[in-house]
Amino acid sequence: MNDNAELLKQLRIERNQPEKKTPGPLQVVIPLAIAGVVLLSIAIAWWLLRGNGGPEVRTAQAAPLSSGPSAASVLDASGYVVARRMATVSAKVTGRVQEVLIEEGMRVEEGQVLARLDPVDADASRALATSQLAAARSQIDNVQAQLLEAEANATRLQKLVGNQLVSRAQYDQAVAQRDSLRAQLATVRRQAQVAQDQLRIAGHGVDNTVVRAPFSGVVIAKAAQPGEIVSPLATGGFTRTGIGTIVDMDSLEVEVDVGEAYIGRVRAKMPVEATLNAYPDWKIPAEVIATIPTADRGKATVKVRIALKEKDPRIVPDMGVTVSFLEQAPENDDEPRTGVRVPAEALVERDGQALVFVLGDDDRVSERQVQATASTGSTRDITSGLAPGELVVLDPPEELADGDRVKPAGSN
């Protein structure tokens, strides 16, 4: 009996005992998230310890001064290639285009035929002038025959009047007839000369229907087509004013706008280095022709003309160009030049000192104090503090300090 009672007590449910609860979703996710954050922090720390941290920077190599131009840039400016000799060719008379013999990019020589107009009217005028000249010359022949007879008659009557065989009045009448024919002959000769001049003018009219190149150059625009009406005057409507545009490529030069504050640095015959935007690696030697003695009040600039010392088919009008005005080369070119040249964006000024950051083999930078020239171009000449071949950081961040680790651009 006692054993049965003990068994019954074991089967009894205790009402005061707390119930066991099943864990919810949040109780499972939160610990997992915390564990993920810890693992991510460990991975970031491991990545930084490997040396891949630090800001990404651009670098450039210091070049020895002997490898570059002998003069530093004192001023940079931008402008365009322009042609001093360019013409839109037109006919001297109004007419309908019969044929056009040019195309864009075609090379033409001085006097070469570019186009022809319909010469019907001009040919008719020349034919009329030719007929008028022939009529004037026939009148000369007629008057000369009459004058020959009148002179013979006057000579004969002169002998008879001396022998008193004819009256004095008959002789005077013959002399008057002779003198009248002489005057008439002079008149018809002048008329013939006028007719000849008219024929020459009519010939010019025919020649004006042929459009020729005024100088040698390259055609950059074709403005008319056969069948169109062209006129040297702008009459409006559908009338063209030109056949095409020709540029003398030998007359190309550069025009740049220089700020008024820097125009004092520019002088005639000053050496210049020009760089076309289309060919950034091509340095073209040039020199200043003149400074135009007027300013643009809207832009506060002064225009400067620059002559290109190299002629090349790649140089075409209206190309964008950047020019660097250079210092005069030293008089003694035999003296060796020491130092290096670096891009201007490599230099920073801190506490009144010119500094550069040199990149080492371990991707750490070292701060260097340098002596730099006062030029304001795209490069700087460093006379001390930097050796040729060293890598300098371009546009270093303000927070970059000596010994910091950086990531060169393009490295993994």
TrEMBL record:
Residues 342-395 form the Multidrug resistance protein MdtA-like C-terminal permuted SH3 domain. Residues 368-412 are annotated as: Disordered. It is found in: Cell envelope. GO terms for cellular component: efflux pump complex. Pfam families: Beta-barrel_RND_2, BSH_RND, RND-MFP_C. Residues 254-327 form the CusB-like beta-barrel domain. Residues 368-382 have a biased composition (Polar residues). Residues 402-412 have a biased composition (Basic and acidic residues). Residues 126-198 form a coiled coil. One of its GO terms (molecular function) is efflux transmembrane transporter activity. The chain crosses the membrane at residues 28-49. InterPro entries: Beta-barrel_RND_2, MdtA-like_BSH, MdtA-like_C, RND_pump_MFP. Keywords: Coiled coil, Membrane, Transmembrane, Transmembrane helix, Transport. Gene3D superfamilies: 2.40.30.170, 2.40.420.20, 2.40.50.100, Helix hairpin bin. Residues 85-231 form the Multidrug resistance protein MdtA-like barrel-sandwich hybrid domain. Belongs to the membrane fusion protein (MFP) (TC 8.A.1) family. NCBIfam families: RND_mfp (TIGR01730). This is Efflux transporter, RND family, MFP subunit. It comes from Pseudoxanthomonas suwonensis (strain 11-1).
